[in-house]
Design brief:
By secondary structure, the protein is an alpha/beta fold. The protein is built from 4 helices and 5 strands, in the order H-E-E-E-H-E-H-E-H. A 3-stranded parallel sheet has the order 4-3-5. The longest helix is centred in the middle third of the chain and has 13 residues. The protein is elongated, with a radius of gyration of 19 Å.
Length: 111
């Protein structure tokens, strides 16, 4: 991956019609919603604060919308979201970490 400059991001934002993160019609900051399943993880606050700071550099206000997992899944199925992170990272470097979900008694499907 290659990190792109903040100036390039601001240029793209202006081309999209939001110079400096401002909606030209309303003269208000652009607001984007970040959906996430509710978690009690110790890193959540730090992660969300960092994300807000990064969007703030573009003049964008980021709202964090944490919901219970079943509600989060429903938002994803309906496409009722703007920005989200959803996934799973391997906690040890072995293919079994993922493959056990696809084969054997843990599998959700027969084939």
């Amino acid at each position: 991956p290659e990190r792109l400059s903040l100036n390039y991001a601001k240029k793209l934002l202006a081309e999209a019609g939001y110079p400096n993160g401002i909606n030209p019609k309303t003269k208000e900051r652009l607001i984007l919603n970040f959906d996430t399943p509710t978690s009690s993880g110790p890193d959540d606050k730090a992660r969300f604060d960092w994300l807000r700071e990064q969007f703030d550099k573009l003049g964008i206000e980021l709202h964090i919308r944490a919901t219970q997992y079943n509600q989060f899944q429903e938002k994803m199925r309906q496409g009722n979201n703007q920005i989200f992170m959803w996934g799973w990272e391997a906690d040890y470097p072995d293919p079994d970490n993922f493959l056990f979900l696809l084969y054997g008694p843990n599998s959700q499907a027969k084939y």
